[in-house]
Specification:
Number of helices: 5
Strand content: 35-45%
CATH architecture of the largest domain: Super Roll
CATH superfamily of the largest domain: Bactericidal permeability-increasing protein, domain 2
CATH class of the largest domain: Alpha Beta
Order of helices and strands: EEEHHEEEEEEHEHEEEEEHEEEE
Distance between the termini: 31 Å
Structural class: alpha+beta
Number of domains: 2
Helix content: 10-25%
């Protein structure tokens, strides 16, 4: 920086000029507002050797003034950030059943070029506040530091997030589907099984049928490097439509393994699965023993042509990522690491954030975050 001064009167005229270098090293603890600093001011040019003595003599006073100014700015900025974070929604509604709990569980962590937030991230009933979860999800494993990326936003979602939503939908009784239409509708009539399952046709001649497919436990999601796997246990109950009633005639137990992939659509994380393999067992039957080959062929058709498309229709809608209103994700790509899905993207500002109607959630939250957000 340049320095200069001039003074003139009827008796004397004085002026001088030169340049100065200022080096200020500071280490700030933003939580305790503690500061360590080292200030060095060096004057050059003119009679700087003379003025340097005054600078050195008042160095403590100068250092104190600079420190107070910086501390005041930090306190002011921290207060604004705290006010802003306090006004953010505490949950994001997905549908009439589920909402994501986006309550902060730790203080923000400031890194050299980014700020990191940990939020609870688990799904809760949409009509309730965020209680302590009564489901044991185990230890949460966070993604490693990702500060070297040039992307503006990183979101790490632990597999506990997905297991919490599957447990929630299972508890709500939504993981079941009644099949009354198939590509070949004749298959849902006892006449089509006249020669393969004679006893079925003899007891219920030319009657329409239904398939009641329901999960008997929450689907289990496991995420590893480069893959997402899910296992779900199902009961498939064969129902005959009688003249005045419905009659369950057989129940087949299935253990189904699917693999999936995730992508981003808008601000939603969406997915798609495909069938890997399945095993089955005849749980009970009122129409005699069923031929293993027949059951296997029918179940494969049901799973590939009915179950998987039905699941994908819901996964295609996805659920919202924890993005501040007014921003939209762009140029996103997905990474899968041990127990986590990581979304890396840039963001664009589309409209001012509207804070009206913000819903605050009371109650305790999990101590371990299931979602980590890193802003650059």
């Amino acid at each position: 920086m340049e320095w200069s001064y001039s003074y003139s009167s009827w008796l004397v005229e004085i002026s001088d000029s030169g340049n100065a270098s200022i080096q200020f090293y500071v280490l700030v603890d933003t939580l305790d507002m503690y500061m360590e600093e080292d200030l060095d001011i060096t004057l050059n040019g003119g009679s700087s050797w003379f003025y340097q003595g005054f600078i050195d003599a008042f160095s403590n006073h100068i250092r104190s003034s600079v420190e107070n100014a910086i501390t005041n700015k930090i306190v002011e900025s921290a207060s604004k950030l705290d006010h802003f974070l306090g006004g953010l929604p505490k949950e994001i509604n997905v549908d009439r059943v589920a909402a994501m709990n986006v309550t902060f569980v730790n203080d923000p962590r400031f890194i050299s070029s980014s700020v990191e937030f940990d939020i609870d991230g688990l799904f809760i009933p949409s009509d309730k506040t965020a209680p302590q979860s009564d489901i044991n999800f185990g230890d949460t494993k966070l993604a490693p530091a990702l500060g070297s990326s040039s992307n503006m936003l990183w979101i790490s979602l632990d597999e506990d997030v997905f297991n919490s939503v599957s447990a929630l939908y299972f508890k709500a009784g939504l993981l079941q589907h009644l099949v009354d239409k198939v590509p070949d509708q004749f298959l849902l009539n006892t006449a089509s099984w006249r020669f393969l399952i004679p006893r079925l046709y003899r007891k219920y001649p030319n009657k329409d049928m239904l398939l009641n497919i329901s999960a008997i436990s929450p689907p289990s999601v496991r995420i590893n490097v480069g893959r997402i796997d899910t296992t779900v246990d199902l009961d498939v109950i064969v129902i005959v439509l009688g003249s005045d009633d419905i009659v369950p005639v057989a129940c087949i137990s299935l253990s189904v393994a699917v693999s999936g992939r995730a992508s981003v659509s808008g601000n939603n994380l969406v997915g798609e699965v495909e069938l890997n393999y399945f095993s089955f067992d005849l749980k009970w039957s009122d129409i005699g023993k069923l031929h293993t080959g027949i059951v296997q062929s029918v179940m494969r058709i049901v799973l590939k042509n009915l179950f998987v498309p039905y699941v994908n229709s819901y996964l295609g809608q996805g659920f919202p990522l924890p993005i501040i209103k007014g921003f939209v994700i762009r140029d996103a790509y997905i990474l899968t690491s041990y127990s986590s899905i990581i979304v890396s993207s840039d963001v664009s500002f589309i409209e001012p954030m509207n804070r009206s109607g913000i819903k605050h959630v009371l109650g305790s939250v999990s101590e371990d975050p299931a979602v980590t957000m890193l802003f650059h």
